[in-house]
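Sequence, please.
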């Protein structure tokens, strides 16, 4: 299974977010607010990204 990427949101993602391992960090105020409001680093989300990474399905590029 290949990692899916949506090219329409990739520039937005690159501008507003960055990854520190499996943790998503906001680069901008919009990014930081989005991370917080959507709880993007909840235990469940982090565990899912760790599992995907261990299977080779997590591609941040």
């Amino acid at each position: 299974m290949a990692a899916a990427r949506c090219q329409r949101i990739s520039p937005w993602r690159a501008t507003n977010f960055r990854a520190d391992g499996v943790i998503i960090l906001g680069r901008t105020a919009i990014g930081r607010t989005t991370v917080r409001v959507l709880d993007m680093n909840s235990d469940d989300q982090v565990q899912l990204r760790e599992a995907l990474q261990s299977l080779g399905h997590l591609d941040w590029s």
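Confidence is low (pLDDT under 50) at residues 1-5.
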